[in-house]
Amino acid sequence: MTTTTSASTTRPLRADAARNRALIIDAARELFAQRGLEVTLDDVAAHAGVGVGTVYRRFANREELIEGVFADHLQKVAARIRSVAVDADPWDSVVMVLMTIGEHMAADRGTAALLTSIDHSAPAVQAAKSDIEALVTGIVEKAKAANAIRPEIELTDLFGVICMLSAIGDATQGIDGAWRRYVELLLDSLRGDGPRVPLTVPALTHEQLLEIHERKTH
Predict the structure, then answer these.
(1) pTM
(2) For domain 68-217, is the CATH number 1.10.357.10?
(3) Bridge partners, 145 (sequence order)
(4) Where does the chain hold its CATH 1.10.10.60 domain(s)?
(5) Residue 149, beta-bridge partner list
(6) Of 60, 86, 210, 217, which sits 20 to 30 A from 119 (CA to CA)?
(7) What is the CATH T-level fold of the domain 1-60, as seen in this structure?
(8) Which residues form the HTH tetR-type domain (predicted)?
(9) Where are the alpha helices (DSSP H) in the chain?
(10) Closest listed residue to residue 21, CA positions, set 62, 54, 66, 61
């Protein structure tokens, strides 16, 4: 009897906590897009319609909140990729991955801006990135095996493509759907069949990616 009562009382608390966390994440994302990363936890609490103490119970400081917003964004991207791309035709999978990322970046400039400023070593961010990396690695390898994309394409090449999409999102902000044209141009450069301009520079190494991130964040 006691156990049943305890379960019934804690279950709504867990639901409340999840709802409050979602409100906080959504409010922070909106404020980051409107005002940049300098917003305070008090600002976020007011925008979310929750108490300041509720925000601090979920996130000890602004850095944790920024990491939470970015991790949430990555988790949604991963879920979308998993739902539309994993079981599709090899080339269609590549198209869907880049279209999904482009769409998320265009629709959510506040979160996209975190790409080069977030602490990528944060556990929640690393876990979400690892999930996306595993999904995209499988899609890239399947596409290469089917000759759907150029055989010399590496996973790290997609980092550069994503950075380009982020820059395009900034440049075309407010122009509905403009980003799609540039995703289509990028996709043409990845396609495996037909003559292509040879790549004269090798793909970035993971060490080089870390160096780029360090330069961007310091």
Answers:
(1) 0.73
(2) yes
(3) none
(4) 1-60
(5) 191
(6) 86
(7) Arc Repressor Mutant, subunit A (1.10.10)
(8) 18-77
(9) 2-35, 41-48, 52-58, 62-84, 90-107, 109-112, 123-145, 157-171, 178-190, 206-217
(10) 54
